[in-house]
From TrEMBL:
InterPro entries: LTTR, LysR_HTH_N, LysR_subst-bd, WH-like_DNA-bd_sf, WH_DNA-bd_sf
Coiled coil: none
Keyword DNA-binding found: yes
SUPFAM superfamilies for the chain: Periplasmic binding protein-like II, Winged helix' DNA-binding domain
PROSITE patterns: HTH_LYSR (PS50931)
Organism placement in taxonomy: Bacteria, Pseudomonadati, Pseudomonadota, Alphaproteobacteria, Hyphomicrobiales
This protein's record includes keyword Mitochondrion: no
Protein name: LysR family transcriptional regulator
HTH lysR-type domain segment(s): 6-63
Protein family membership: Belongs to the LysR transcriptional regulatory family.
Alphabetized UniProt keyword annotations: DNA-binding, Transcription, Transcription regulation
Gene Ontology MF terms in the entry: DNA binding; DNA-binding transcription factor activity
Length: 293
């Protein structure tokens, strides 16, 4: 018996449901009715003979099989777009000016830039690293074509855009270090304009936990140096966890910090090259429920 082929339309709708978190929102994206989207997902489940979603109120969550399929689905769509662009699409070229915080250059951007370079091999990328508020200002002045910034900075700057991913902000320190156990809590903090700083300080003050600023730097690489030297602990996204940096144990009583989100903003009147990069970023950075890949 030949292996059945998964319908491209079903795969695209499935990814839209995963990225938006609901059939209704996915229906708006794929320009179908919610009932049509529901029927498509039922057909996909029938084809694969497995349940892909777990209903949770008005939202939907992926089952373990659904999470596994999402990885395949994104690869299928990516290869399809790459093949079509190679033979049918216009050969986009030119300069795209990208703004991002300093930590994104190694933590988030590589998969996006790698895929974009395959789709648009003749494009030139100019990467501008800086603080989110500064990048928002530069985008507003037309000095950048696209920027990936902290959601708070985008909202404060009044920039339209979309949240690509969110993840927990957590307390990190050197694995096996002693800074986590010190009181007052020694902190390595980002600059005053960074929301991570405010989230950490406000959480400690609400919890009545004494702290002191042991180290400060506007850039996350500076915080990493302080952590590796075991000078302090720092509020950082969970994706920073490595064998060298560990999350503080709940037994230490440090307060939860909530989530941080990344906003993607495009310059008004952005060209096709910039929109292509934005499309790639949506596929490589966005995961179900707005979490990081």
């Amino acid at each position: 018996m030949p292996t059945p082929l998964l319908e491209h339309d079903l795969i695209r709708t499935f990814v839209s449901v995963c990225e938006t978190g609901s059939f209704k929102a996915a229906a708006e994206r794929v320009r179908r009715t919610p009932s049509a989207v529901s029927m498509q997902m039922a057909r996909l489940e029938d084809q694969l003979t497995t349940r892909l979603f777990e209903k949770s109120g008005r939202s939907v969550a992926l089952s373990s099989a659904g999470e596994e399929l999402l990885n395949y689905a994104r690869r299928i769509l990516s290869l399809n777009e790459e093949a079509v662009s190679r033979f049918l699409g216009p050969r986009l070229s030119g300069l795209v000016r990208v703004g991002a915080p300093d930590d994104y250059e190694t933590r988030l951007l590589p998969p996006t830039l790698a895929r974009f370079s395959k789709l648009c091999p003749e494009a030139e990328i100019e990467l501008v690293l800086g603080l989110s508020p500064t990048l928002v200002e530069r985008l507003g002045r037309g000095e950048l074509d696209i920027a990936f910034v902290a959601a708070e900075a985008a909202q404060k700057g009044g920039l339209p855009g979309e949240i690509l991913h969110a993840e927990p902000l957590v307390w990190l320190g050197r694995a096996g270090g002693t800074a986590m156990f010190q009181r007052p809590v020694p902190l390595a903090l980002p600059g005053y304009n960074c929301p991570w700083r405010h989230m950490a300080v406000e959480a400690l003050e609400r919890a009545g936990i004494a702290y002191r600023t042991a180290f400060s730097c506007e850039y996350s690489h500076g915080q990493m140096a302080a952590l590796m030297a075991d000078l302090a602990i720092s509020p950082l996204p969970a994706s920073y966890i490595t064998p060298q940096l560990e999350r503080a144990s709940p037994d230490l009583g440090l307060p939860a910090l909530g989530n941080v989100a990344t906003h993607m903003c495009l310059r008004p009147g952005a060209d096709d090259l910039t929109h292509t990069l934005a499309s790639v970023a949506r596929e490589t950075l966005t995961t179900p429920n707005g979490s990081m890949p």
